[in-house]
Design a protein that fits this description.
about 90 residues; single chain; globular; mainly alpha; two-stranded antiparallel ribbon; 2 strands; 4 helices
Length: about 90
């Protein structure tokens, strides 16, 4: 995503860094993807990915489409399924 963000519109923050100020418990922060769009609320899961996509011109159409509740529900379900598989995928990648 950093490579796609050529305009530098996204501020990536390492939640494991001691210097990062987190509005929620860092352990909870690491369980799901989080993002904030402008001064809006802290988003998580598929909604956070959609917010990030809206900031990247190439992915903006997908991020805008994700504002439609049915598509966001499908994306959230896929994200939750991925989270269940993530530990196995990480072990396999090592």
């Amino acid at each position: 995503m950093r490579r796609l963000d050529r305009r530098g519109a996204i501020a990536f923050i390492d939640a494991t860094s001691d210097s990062a100020s987190c509005p929620i418990d860092p352990a909870l922060l690491l369980q799901r993807f989080h993002a904030r769009e402008g001064d809006g609320p802290l988003l998580h899961g598929a909604a956070a990915f959609a917010a990030m996509w809206r900031a990247i011109p190439l992915l903006r159409p997908l991020g805008l489409a994700a504002r439609l509740p049915p598509l966001l529900w499908v994306m959230e379900g896929a994200y939750r399924a991925f989270l269940r598989c993530r530990p196995r995928l990480q072990a396999w990648a090592r």
